[in-house]
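subagent[fold] <- orchestrator: predict structure for attached chain, return tokens only, no commentary.
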Amino acid sequence: MARGKIQIRKIENSTNRQVTYSKRRNGLFKKANELTVLCDAKVSIIMVSCTDKLHEYISPSVTTKQFFDHYQKASGIDLWNSHYEKMQEEMRQLKEVNKNLRRQIRQRLGDCLENLGFEQLLDLEKESQEAVYIIRERKLKVIGNKLETLKKKVRSAQDVYKKLMHEFDIRGDDPQYGMIEDAGEYEAMYGYPPHIASTPQILTLRLQPNHPENLHAVASDLTTYALLG
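subagent[fold] -> orchestrator:
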């Protein structure tokens, strides 16, 4: 049964178009491979789909560069010269931009001012003043942020101090922590125990009467009271 004739025109349905492209691309690459094997030909195919996907085929016996070099030699067309000239022009423009930027930086530092006219000097002065204003505003903002942080730390320290003094006053009224009658025979010490850095406490250390015969037992006679938990 003969196949019907297909009208050659763009396939509007995107799914059908992609399916047709894939099938015919594979068929084309298959024919190119057959030409390479049967006829010892050098074949190169480059295809870009409607979705900008690149597909290519080249005979295994030749590289892409060799193929294009052979094309230039056979056709007399230089494929790389125009591209090289374009790259050279782009490089020249970039060098010029870089040169202008360096000159502007030096002018803002007070150098290379000899060739500037009066209007240019006025513009440079205005730009410098605006830059100084922006820098000063940023500096003041940074200083303000640091001051706010320090104020918070001070308020936090004051709150801790008030809490400690309040707890100290409460414990001072407790007979267990009251003042001793003969203060001359005792020594007291207040501080933060080093092994509880994360939970500070104020401790009072009371020594037994300081007689010579009891000096060897001072360590065992320490009585420790935790004033703050």
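orchestrator: received. Logging for downstream: The domain at 14-77 is CATH 3.40.1810.10 (SRF-like). The beta strands are 44-48, 54-58, 190-191, 203-206, 223-226.
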